[in-house]
Amino acid sequence: MSAPQNFQNHGRFDPKFHFFTIPLALFCFIASIFHVWKQPTPPNILLVPVTFVLFMVAGIARGYALQVQDRVIRLEESLRMERLGMSSAGLTIRQFVALRFASDAELPALTERARAEKLSGKQIKQAIVNWRADYERV
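Above: the chain's sequence. Below: its structure in token form.
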């Protein structure tokens, strides 16, 4: 990344997933529907649910990977908070994921504010002054 990471540019795409796997799976699903419309034979009809399942499996696999990554972030941030003498109780996983971008100096105040005001992940990220980059997120 050429520019330092911040709220405006921290989102990422995985080209293999977002620009190849999902579009190709969606294309196959749509093509199978078109194929059934042109030639409604039993093998062609079977293609529709099969291609739909392939499309769904790709999305579900990505979702599971992100869930695991969020749990790892929660663990890392809990350990970081413990190291800083803070409690991580009462935070949602979305708050943990957003708080990972906060510097050690602003983490205590931002954590208390997130708890008290029930801030969303986006609100937490917008409130961060000293951005702590995370280039590892998939």
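The chain has a mean pLDDT of 93.
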